Amino acid sequence: MNDDPLMRRLKFRAWHRGTRESDYTVGGFFERYHETWNAEEIAWFERFMDEQDADIIGWALGTIPVPDEWKGPMMDKFLKLDFVKIEN
């Protein structure tokens, strides 16, 4: 595990959203990509986690449009959902 307190805090927040769906989505995104993030991308993720779970899931499923402020390379990666792993 990363010894960086910020990354430990982000990991915890990503995996403890409040619903299992959000945990898998946001936590899975963190696990898949966090090691490659630069400071700007980390800041993006910190702001992203302040959004409501219903909005994040809606964006991920395409049921609500992604606001312009979130569009870009990070959201493009998020919307792939290639990181969601559901365990039995």
TrEMBL record:
<dbReference type="InterPro" id="IPR036714">
    <property type="entry name" value="SDH_sf"/>
</dbReference>
<keyword id="KW-0143">Chaperone</keyword>
<comment type="similarity">
    <text>Belongs to the SdhE FAD assembly factor family.</text>
</comment>
<dbReference type="Pfam" id="PF03937">
    <property type="entry name" value="Sdh5"/>
</dbReference>
<protein>
    <recommendedName>
        <fullName>FAD assembly factor SdhE</fullName>
    </recommendedName>
</protein>
<dbReference type="InterPro" id="IPR005631">
    <property type="entry name" value="SDH"/>
</dbReference>
